[in-house]
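thread from #wetlab-drylab

HS: before we spend reagent money on co-crystallization trials with pyridoxal-5'-phosphate, can we at least see a predicted complex? here's what I'd submit
DV: go for it
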Amino acid sequence: MTDRPTLDDLSAGVPFANRHIGLAAVDQAKMLSTLGYASVDALLSAAVPASIWLDEALNLPAAGTEAGVTAELREYAARNRPMAQMIGLGYYDTVTPPVIRRNVLENPSWYTAYTPYQPEISQGRLEALLTFQTMIEDLTGLPIANASLLDESTAAAEAMTLCRRASKAPKEAAFLVDKDVLPQTRAVVGTRADGLGISVVDADLSQGLPDGHFFGVLLQYPGASGVVRDFEAITATAHERGALVAMAADLLGLTLLRSPGETGADIAVGTSQRFGVPLMYGGPHAGYMSVRDGLQRMLPGRLVGVSKDVDGGPAYRLALQTREQHIRREKATSNICTAQVLLAVIAAFYATWHGPEGLRLIAERTHRYAAVLAAGLRAAGFTVVHESFFDTIQVRTPEAARIVAAAADRGINLRLAGDDLIGIACDETTTADRLREVWAAFGVSDVDIEALDTATADGLPEHLLRTSSYLRHDVFHQHRSETSMMRYLRGLAAKDYGLDRGMIPLGSCTMKLNAAAEMEPISWPEFAGIHPFVPPEQARGYAALIDDLETWLAEATGYDAVSLQPNAGAQGELAGLLAIRAYHDANGGTHRDVCLIPSSAHGTNAASAVMAGMKVVVVRCDDDGNVDLDHLRTTLDQHRDDVAALMITYPSTHGVYEATVADVCAAVHDAGGQVYVDGANLNALLGVAKPGRFGGDVSHLNLHKTFCIPHGGGGPGVGPVAAREHLAPYLPGHPIEPRPGADTVGPVAAAPYGSAGILPISWAYLRLMGPDGLRNATGSAVLAANYLARRLSAHYPVLYTGAGGLVAHECILDLRPITKTTGVTVDDVAKRLIDYGFHAPTMSFPVAGTLMVEPTESENLGELDRFVAAMIAIRAEIDRVGAGHWPADDNPLGNAPHTAATLAEDWTHPYDRQRAVFPPGVTAATKYWPPVRRIDGAYGDRNLVCSCPPPEDFA
Ligand SMILES: *Cc1c(COP(=O)(O)O)cnc(C)c1O
């Protein structure tokens, strides 16, 4: 016997947790000694209240190796069966151009970036989003588009509420939905309408507008059946009767068909999926919305606009930010926060790559295949239902089920649209061989495709053919060669600051590592190529992965059931609140409609409550930032009979573990209310405490924070909702894939499993970390936050702390006293951090005039110390301004960020160039150069421009 390691030991290699967690053991020891704790556990037990402390380890599989976990994922992938997907219904096969897949989808410069709230370091993705908006505006023929929504169906639901706000129709007016709207869209619209008390009327609008009062009308163009109808007359009648018209339109179809704007529509919505974004079993994909002039200030979601920097050069930033809905809390009209930026960027680049001619060619080819397919079936005696279509045809035959099965045997999914009805959708990937296979499934052989092609007319109605041009801007014409495209993408990425450059210490956002091993599976065809409405036997791998993930998340949170459907945190909130309402309804509490929300809460909480039809009552916080228990008790007394829920974030958005959380939950339960624990901050809890155990009835989690799905510059996301047993029956359902027992609450997303395509990322994270790794991650995140708080507290007051003077996973630095005495603002510090090579912490949330810092477990001590040094150096600069050494209107802080171009100007500042661009700790070798100087947001809001500016502006 020797001490030689066994083969097992040798094979284990470096645990993945050591790759994910940036802090080596020696670093942790140094940091602990700074804080005066003997171990991470000692630190945790001092910070976390004993009342919520978890004694047992999480019951999750032990950590796997990267190779082992990849092999397991391969095995799951092999259980999925990618087919030729001709189901349609808003999801189509598409080719992601390899130059975009490799340089964008699989490139951390793009996928690790944050929402562009700091526009000076986000010009690349802002330009891409402006291209997206320009593309949507052009194709839909409407002047203002936003920078993406969550999917087509939620976009339609947002259109409904926009119509309600903009229409002068009487209060009792209903929302009218055409019968050819996509079934999943009808269902999501229904869920939203129920929440808000809006009545929805279904009608066949090819028969004209029914009697009654309507504030809005929803049309599908082309319809779910594939038919292309002329909506001009119906739109005119709707307008005469005081209703707005929203058209859900297919972007590829719009390259050939008259646009919604030209037809008179007020709003266009849809998905950009088929512009190069794989099917992903339903998502993530970027939904879109564009509106006519006059509605732009009511637009939900984010809007990119053109403004200028202090040098007068054009610069992009989010426009009308005060209008950004969730920030308005209970006054919000939408709860969209995380959207689908990465996918919108991909769709925009797809249009950039193909240009208008290329897109038109793809559309014409798609249409011609559909036309020839229809002609072949007609010639064989089959009934093709509609004369006018773009890409989808319907065939009426008593043999429908048998034919769909025969096609499946040939590797093709058709849609069984009724007992005697088959839907077949052509797309970018359709070929002549594919048509032969489809015909064969119908028992049709020996078709002469060439002859049929020559003999068959188009199926597009003459009077609906598009005559207006689109995508005329240079950006859609300049990058036809791959060399040019590659350089264009590189040039944009070079302007941006992502996790591939340095730390992004954004409080409340958890910008941790998105490991390559977690990311790789999402582009495997067995995950990427699955249509969301395939029969279950083709998605067994997904089913297994989803089942694991639901089980593991339930275990990690202490809840009984999990739904992965919500495709952002705020959608999880909505689903959770709808569950609470349905529960009260079923238990004689229909009148309970008050939602208590602490003043410190994230803005989406109040916005979601309003969308669930609840009244928001704000509960105050005390001087320590905790929920004011006395005020809570008085408020509960006032609303004892009508309180539906309390929404509480834990740890609080103030970054502390509130000791009284169990009391807060108990008080709400005593009053007959349910407790919603906002679980977006789970990075401070995993393996340490479970919200489902300390009083929560339901929570949402943000897989794009704690569970490693990258932020993508503002999306995608997954916001699972987790609930205790009594709320489980009220988790979101779906018409296409009904969940047993769930029939009272409809879907909150278009696809049954929302953004299913990115679930392998979180699955891999949990599987790679294991229970010990996850707990270590929590401990390391809390250690890092406390280390920063301690190191910085002498220079910037830390606003709130809990037991032992400790914070949780983030800390708020209070700049207000400093601003008062020196005039230097949080903005100045945030912009100056750019010169030091950092992304600013979260600014002015949840407290105005403060910075909220969240380092996460993924940063190493060197990077934390670099940040500390930068903040201390900035503090010294602030003091120089305060002391009058530098004038208030000409100093390195107020002038930040400094660009390379400023160096070439006449230098008149009272500090030198060295100080400007190479402050302490910054070297020429590692320098990040911002492409623009400070951006004037107000200028852009007064002169709203939301499409690509002419290239001359950049001369
Ligand atoms: C991020 C966050 C949300 C919203 O999540 P989205 O995915 O952006 O909708 C809600 N609550 C808290 C506390 C958050 O940090």
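DV: Residues 337-338, 508, 568-570, 602, 604, 649, 653, 678, 680-681, 702, 717, 719 surround pyridoxal-5'-phosphate (CB under 6 Å).
HS: ok that's useful, forwarding to the group
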